[in-house]
Design goal:
The structure holds 2 protein chains of 2 kinds.
Chain A (H helix, E strand, L loop, with lengths): L1 H13 L46 H11 L3 H18 L2 E2 L10 E2 L7 E3 L1 H27 L3 H4 L5 H4 L22 E8 L5 E7 L6 H14 L1 H7 L5 H13 L10 E4 L8 H11 L3 E2 L4 E4 L2 E6 L2 E5 L1 E4 L22 H6 L4 E3 L16 H9 L10 E3 L3 H9 L4 E5 L9 E2 L5 H13 L4 E5 L5 E6 L2 E15 L4 E3 L4 E4 L15 E7 L14 H4 L10 H34 L5 H13 L16 H10 L7 H14 L6 H9 L13 H25 L4 H26 L5 H11 L3 H7 L6 H10 L7 H18 L7 H15 L2 H4 L9 H26 L4 E3 L1
Parallel strand pairs in A: 3-21, 6-7, 6-11, 11-12
Antiparallel strand pairs in A: 1-2, 4-5, 4-18, 8-9, 9-10, 13-16, 14-15, 14-16, 17-18, 18-19, 18-20, 20-21
Helix pairs in contact in A: 2-8, 3-7, 16-19, 16-21, 16-22, 17-22, 20-21, 22-26, 22-29, 26-27, 27-29
Chain B lengths: L1 E29 L6 E11 L4 E6 L5 E7 L3 E14 L13 H10 L3 H7 L12 H7 L9 H15 L1 E2 L10 H7 L1 E2 L1 H13 L5 E8 L17 E8 L3 E5 L11 E7 L2 H4 L2 E7 L2 E17 H4 L1
Parallel strand pairs in B: 6-7
Antiparallel strand pairs in B: 1-4, 1-5, 1-12, 1-13, 2-5, 3-4, 8-9, 8-11, 9-10
Helix pairs in contact in B: 3-6
The chains are: A alpha+beta, B alpha+beta.
């Protein structure tokens, strides 16, 4: 029942994420010209800018040293490096979730071998434009949310662009904004026009994604192109993150000197969850979900095992509308009730400020130029793609007359909306679109259709050309600005896909901003080290402890199950030559008793023999308790605490994820045994890494307590099942010892063949056998006592009563008299004892859950 | 000028099944000041004692209170008591009001702060869609160049004839299209429907939450919607201001209507909205009592 509840909580916590906008953008691409061979030939599609080659076919200067460096490698070497990159991506578990695709969860990230180099001088121009844009957008948000809305009164923005806009969050008007910084981190999507100028076509202002992927791209490329990275002299990305973190802290509410900072994520089903966990780890701040936070006395707190700890700054990756079910979208289960009130009271900084997603509406692009002149008295340094908002009558007329050359998009659509390419529509479609535009003009914009620039990508077949878009990032604390020297370059999915969208499977490239003499090694305006000296550490969120506990349980459950299957399949394989019917029956009965096979076999199972049914359990993708099902649960719980694992541990966990094992063309016992062997070794590696690497804090204790509880339960189950198998005791006990990994222990202590009293001594009462029940009980006792003192929670003797209850029962048991001796004997005494143990263990699990993890979800009244 | 004084007691009682560990509520129960209404006194009695009761003006200028109860509780009782002085409404000579089309076009070009504020109420909102269904219904009343209040009055008369007041027909979550189909509902539905009709032809209209006098003065009929909080509509007319209209009772509110506040629709101004953590189910009981306690001349109120 608790497991069921656990699942419900998980599914609730991740519900609603489909409404979050993906990091997807549509853009008109162009048919690229595939080329073969290791050298990269010039010549992009007509009307587009060739990133790599100038007009006369000579490489551009920013590419020359990169091309020289790559040119030293032959095709085979380049492909080998590309494959190495793919392997690292898989190992690092870099993923991007795709909505609405059951197989789309945790899709491996796509990264091309060839980076995009950008010359230092060109970058300086771009940087100035990006900083100006960030200042401008912030001023617009300030006028609308904190100011007098002069831009509306003076006619710079039409009210119809703001008031019906779902991104305009009325409760957020008038909320104090720390440092008047609405946009702490903003992103701009750029396309290079055929003339070679960078043009902005979208702004990401709510909770822009991509910084983490950009950093990870660099990490991967520095592994596969280490010499090139040095030779070309590329600016580093790390300083940007130090600066961002320091800026984030300086945005804490007034008077807070050592702020508690968290990263708020919608949860593991979100498209960019990988990045949330990665960033949290990189910035050194806890990754939390809405349910981890609570508002008390108009302040935000993190629910940790140590109790409530105050949170001063929230770096949010939850869309602003979903952040507070009380004042914003009531149906959101991702938010924190009362968060808006806490912000209104000036007790918490939310970055980006709630409501800042408003300005993502592409319709704003049509108005930025005059606003820039008006508010900043400057000419815009970074042009936007020409945009018409159909809510303006003259614009609508232009759009209706020039449909052929335009792209039509939803005006307020921060979510995935339909996009129309004028030149791809037939007459009927055009007429339908015109009707739509006339009926609801305000809801649409049109943009000039522009061919993006093209650049080479390396494929196993050689270089190919793809369209590229660049996402850049600017962070600020109001006083200064930091532009990430690089960015996330996205590449169209295939040569003829006009859409560049991560949701549609497009790839990415690292972006290399070339260093010049003038560039400092690090942006020098702030020393990140000074601010990191005495950072306040926040405790372990209760939900994370819950996930660690279940991770411990499920990894152990998987291991137990694999041991049983390995032993039983081994027996079956062994007996084919010299079939002992009795032995096979014993195996079948044991397997049945352990609940490995469904208790009521499927109707078509009549002629399936035992081995086929066991293979089903191993390979079947569904069904509770099947191997893939357990692997899925492991992934689910591990994902929820992803920020807590080192890279190595995460890599091992990746090998325990569904789909990590190869599906054979034909299922066989031999293949299954090989796979089981691998999985058992991976589990051993996970246990070893965790034993050696995890700090012995509460997190580790919950993980290990979960494992101990599960192992104890498994031993009890195994003994109970074996006691019902009516065969010679040495036959069944041989299996039991093997499954319980205690053959060696038995052999060392007893020289005879296996007898029930000896086996029970080893598996139940022997305190020094790490596979024995007594060992698990002692370990759990140790953890629970330690948790009480480490977490300074009140002492509760309920679990000591439970543990001591089991311990005294097994201490007092007379194994010689309660055991079944051979066929026909009643197992009552033993079964009674085992039932007591089993109930005690279940009670412990419930108690732990109620005491530490109960985090109820809010509901609307 | 003569003013009427009212004492209002608005009680909201929740009974929860299973203890609620923390509850956060937004209350919009304190009557706001308007051009013809003054709230002389207001107090809350909330049980259990909240750990936070924090007042602030909301986006629409209403008086909102944030309330948090941060210990386990099985019930929540909110009593809001107000004393309000109400002056008669000014209703312009109907035939003198501007042609309705001129109101629409002035709203489009005018960039005064008052008009800008009115534009906030011109678009579809969460509970009030705009569509040809509603503009078609308005059309017979809003004939060419008709004075706007004359047209509005005609529209309300038609609504009264076409729709039935029926407290059992709808809930707070019934979509407006459903009300239009079944032709039955409560004051909230009537108000939303009139707003949809007005916005769909380009006129700014807002949703007013408030109260009606419970017992009618001698010789006057008891109005519909007295047992709970009431709702009506306000229409913007540049140069004149906001004109209240009660489609449920087909009248122009004056001395017997007391406003709490307004928004684009019910969702902006619902008297009590909350999020509970813990608990499984709840039973809600609401009662409203509005008593006339006499009349005063405005000067006495100082």
């Amino acid at each position: 029942m608790l497991e069921a509840r656990h699942r419900v909580l998980e599914s609730l916590a991740s519900a609603g994420v489909d409404d979050l906008p993906p990091m997807s953008d549509a853009f008109h691409g162009s048919r690229a010209i595939p080329t073969a061979g290791p050298s990269c030939p010039p010549g992009g599609p007509p009307g587009s800018f060739d990133e790599c080659f100038g007009g006369s076919g000579i490489p551009r200067s920013n590419w020359s040293s990169l091309l020289d460096a790559l040119g030293r490698h032959g095709s085979t070497e380049l492909t080998a490096r590309r494959d190495e990159g793919l392997r690292i991506i898989r190992e690092h578990g870099i993923t991007y979730n795709v909505y609405g695709d059951p197989k789309g969860c945790d899709r491996p990230w796509e990264l091309d071998l060839v980076p995009i180099p950008i010359a230092a001088a060109e970058w300086r121009v771009l940087e100035a434009g990006l900083v100006q844009r960030s200042r401008l957008l912030n001023l617009i948000l300030r006028d609308i949310y904190s100011g007098t809305q002069r831009l509306l009164l003076d006619g710079f923005l039409p009210p119809e662009l703001i008031y019906p806009n779902p991104g305009f969050l009325r409760p957020c008007r008038g909320i104090p904004v720390a440092g008047q910084v609405h946009l702490h981190l903003s992103a701009v999507d750029l396309v290079r026009s055929p003339s070679g100028a960078w043009v902005a076509f979208a702004d990401r202002t709510s909770s822009p994604s991509g910084v983490g992927y950009a950093l990870e791209n660099r990490t991967v490329l520095s592994r596969i192109l280490p010499e090139e990275l040095g030779e070309v002299s590329v600016r580093r990305l790390h300083p940007f993150f130090n600066t961002e973190r320091a800026m984030l802290e300086s945005l804490a509410p007034r008077g807070v000197s050592n702020p508690g900072v968290v990263l708020l994520t919608p949860g593991p089903l979100n498209a960019t969850y990988f990045e949330h966990a990665y960033l949290a780890r990189h910035l050194g701040i806890p990754l939390v979900e809405g349910a981890d936070l609570t508002v008390r006395n108009e302040r935000v707190f993190l629910k940790t095992l140590e109790g409530l700890q105050s949170v001063d700054v929230i770096l949010r990756r939850v869309e602003d509308g979903f952040c507070d079910p009380l004042e914003l979208r009531a149906e959101s289960v991702l938010g924190i009730p009362g968060l808006v009130q806490a912000a209104r009271s000036g007790n918490v900084t939310v970055a980006n400020a709630l409501g800042s997603g408003l300005i993502e509406s592409p319709a704003f692009l049509a108005f930025l130029r005059p606003i820039c002149r008006h508010l900043l008295s400057e000419e815009p340094l970074l042009p936007s793609v020409t945009t018409w908002w159909c809510g303006v009558a003259t614009d609508l007329r232009h759009v209706l007359e020039n449909l052929e050359s335009l792209v039509i998009k939803p005006a307020f659509g921060r979510r995935r909306g339909q996009i129309w390419f004028g030149h791809l529509l037939n007459a009927a479609e055009k007429s339908r679109l015109r009707d739509l535009l006339v009926a609801k003009p305000r809801e649409f914009i049109a943009q000039e259709c522009m061919n993006p620039s093209s650049a080479p990508v390396w494929t196993p077949g050689g270089f190919e050309r793809r369209s590229i878009l660049l996402r850049t990032f600017v962070a600020t604390d109001g006083a200064s600005y930091a532009v990430m020297p690089g960015g996330l370059t996205r590449v169209s999915a295939s040569v003829d896909d006009p859409l560049v969208s991560m949701q549609r499977g497009a790839g990415s490239k690292d972006t290399w901003v070339l260093r010049s003499e003038e560039d400092p090694d690090e942006p020098g305006h702030r020393s990140p080290l000074q601010t990191s000296v005495d950072r306040r550490l926040l405790g372990l969120p209760s939900r994370a402890a819950d996930s660690l506990f279940w991770l411990g349980r499920y990894t152990e459950r998987l291991e137990q199950r694999l041991r049983i299957l390995r032993c039983v399949l081994g027996q079956i394989a062994d007996q084919t030559a010299d079939a002992s019917v009795r032995q096979t029956d014993a195996v079948a009965l044991l397997v049945q008793g352990l609940g490995i096979l469904p208790s009521d076999p499927p109707s078509d199972a009549g002629d399936m023999d035992l081995s086929d049914r066991l293979l089903e359990v191993i390979y079947a993708t569904e069904g509770p308790g099947s191997i893939p099902d357990l692997m899925g649960r492991i992934r689910q719980n591990a994902s929820a605490v992803r920020d807590r694992f080192s890279g190595d541990t995460w890599r091992i966990l990746g090998r325990l994820a569904p789909g990590s094992t190869v599906q054979p063309s034909r299922q066989s016992i031999a293949h299954a045994l090989g796979m089981i062997q691998d999985l058992i070794l991976n589990l051993a590696a996970f246990n070893g890494l965790e034993m050696e690497n995890m700090t012995r804090g509460p997190g580790w204790r919950f993980l290990d307590a979960g494992r101990r509880l599960e192992r104890g339960t498994a031993i009890v189950g195994l003994v109970t099942a074996a006691s019902f198998v009516p065969v010679q005791e040495d036959a069944i006990l041989g299996l039991v010892l093997e499954i319980a990994d205690s053959v060696m222990t038995h052999r060392r202590r007893y020289f005879s063949s296996a007898r029930w009293p000896d086996v029970l001594e080893i598996l139940i009462r022997e305190g020094s056998n790490p596979r024995a029940l007594a060992f698990q009980l002692a370990a759990m006792r140790n953890h629970l006592d330690a948790l009480e003192s480490e977490l300074r929670v009140g002492v509760d003797d309920r679990w000591s009563v439970l543990i001591e209850g089991i311990q005294s029962r097994i201490a007092a048991a007379d194994f010689d008299s309660i055991i079944p001796l051979g066929e026909g004997c009643s197992p009552d005494g033993l079964v009674g004892l085992m039932e007591t143990c089993s109930q005690g263990l279940a009670g412990l699990s419930d108690d732990l859950t109620h005491r530490y993890f109960s985090h109820t979800l809010p509901r609307i009244s | 000028m003569r003013q009427l004084l009212y004492d209002i007691v608005h009680t909201t009682d929740y009974d929860y099944r299973g203890a609620v560990s923390v509850s956060h509520h937004f209350l919009r129960l304190e009557p706001r000041e308007t051009s013809r209404q003054r709230c002389i006194a207001h107090e809350f009695r909330i049980l259990p004692e909240p750990s936070v009761l924090s007042p602030h003006g909301d986006y629409f200028g209403n008086r909102a209170h944030f309330v948090a109860v941060e210990r386990p509780h099985c019930s929540l009782s909110i009593i809001s008591r107000s004393r309000v002085a109400v002056s008669p409404a000014f209703l312009p000579d109907i035939s003198e009001t501007p042609a309705w089309e001129s109101v629409r076009s002035r709203c489009r070009v005018d960039r005064t702060r008052a008009t800008l504020e009115a534009l906030e109420y011109s678009h579809a909102s969460p509970l009030v869609p705009t569509s040809p269904v509603f503009s078609d219904y308005s059309a017979p009343s809003f004939t060419a160049s008709r004075p706007i209040i004359d047209a509005l009055s005609d529209l309300m008369t038609r609504i009264l004839a076409d729709f039935r007041f029926d407290p059992t027909a709808t809930t707070v979550s019934t979509p407006l299209e459903e009300f239009f189909k079944t032709k039955r509902g409560v004051c909230q539905d009537f108000a939303h429907f009139l707003i949809a009709c007005l916005r769909s032809i380009g006129l700014p209209a807002r949703y007013v939450s408030g109260y009606l006098e419970t017992d009618p003065p001698p010789g006057m009929p008891k109005l519909r919607g007295v047992d709970a909080s009431h709702a009506w509509v306000s229409l913007y007319c540049p140069g004149i201001g906001w004109i209240d209209a009660d489609p449920t009772n087909n009248c122009f509110p004056s001395l017997r209507h007391i406003s709490i506040g307004w928004g684009r629709d019910y969702a902006d101004i619902s008297p009590v909205r909350g999020v509970l953590i813990g608990g499984t189910d709840q039973v809600l009981k609401v009662s409203v009592d509005v008593t006339a306690v006499g009349s005063v001349s405005q000067s006495l109120l100082g």
